[in-house]
Amino acid sequence: MAATGKWVAYYRVSTDKQGKSGLGLQAQRSAVETYLNGGDWKLVKEFTEVESGKRSDRPQLQAALDACRMFGAKLVIAKLDRLSRDAHFLLGLEKAGVDFVAADMPNANRLTIGIMAMVADEERRMISARTKAALQAAKARGVKLGGHRTGADGKPATLTLDTIAMGREAIAKRAHAKAVDIAPAIRELQAAGITSLTAIAAGLNEQGIPTPRGGLWQAVQVSRVLERLA
Q1: Which residues pair with 150 in a beta bridge?
Q2: pLDDT on residue 49
């Protein structure tokens, strides 16, 4: 199956010597190029890390994940062990919201997704149990549940209002997180003298960076991002 869409490549070498000599690095690039060969694709960014696989605090990997979110791209690596030997770290990719492919094991992501699904299922079970307990406690206090029902005093049930507030807070947090992802690209444009909202929008569109909803940028959307960052 030919590769399509946008991609961000991540390479890792274990020692400074390997990083300076390129030992192992060229082989990783070749593996990625072979995997992407054919199809309609674009490699938007490449990141190289000189780090031990036993550590998970890798700034270049984090930058690669940020770039994936910014461009709406997939992460491609040469070998599965280039990411980590720690299964927990691989599961963290799901939290990062980034899809990835290992050139040597293209179907490996299906295996990790399976593991992630089991973990997510257990988490949903725990959330469901906590939610049921909270509803039972609310019902015991006399709160009428469901819709916009009112309590004995004629006012909206506290649980409903709290749920609405939590939903709004979650939306605001997601919007802020996306603004943080896009911030580096906006700062680069501003540093280059591109400061008007319209010009920044055009610069983001030229780089192929989608809006949070996947469309093209306009001045008003840039303004909202800058407000959130402020």
Answers
A1: 156
A2: 85
Of 170, 3, 6, the closest CA to residue 72 belongs to 6
Phi-psi region of 42 (alpha: psi -120 to 50; beta: other; left: phi over 0): beta
> Phi, psi at residue 174, to the nearest 5°?
-65, -40
Considering only CA atoms, which of 174, 175, 177, 199 is closest in space to residue 188? Answer: 199
List the one residue out of 164, 135, 226, 151 whose CA is nearest residue 189: 226
DSSP summary character for residue 83: T
State the residue for tokens 């293209």: 106
Give average pLDDT by consecutive 10-residue segment, the chain, 230 residues: 85 65 76 86 90 65 90 87 53 71 73 54 70 78 60 52 70 80 88 90 89 86 86
Confidence (pLDDT) at 85? 47
Burial (Cβ within 10 Å: 0-12, 13-18, ≥19) of residue 118: exposed
Alpha helices in the chain (DSSP H): 16-21, 25-36, 59-71, 87-96, 108-140, 158-191, 197-206, 219-229
- Distances in whole angstroms, Cα of residue 12 to Cα of each of 31, 73, 147, 158, 191: 13, 19, 52, 52, 30
Copy the structure tokens of residue 208. Answer: 């192929």
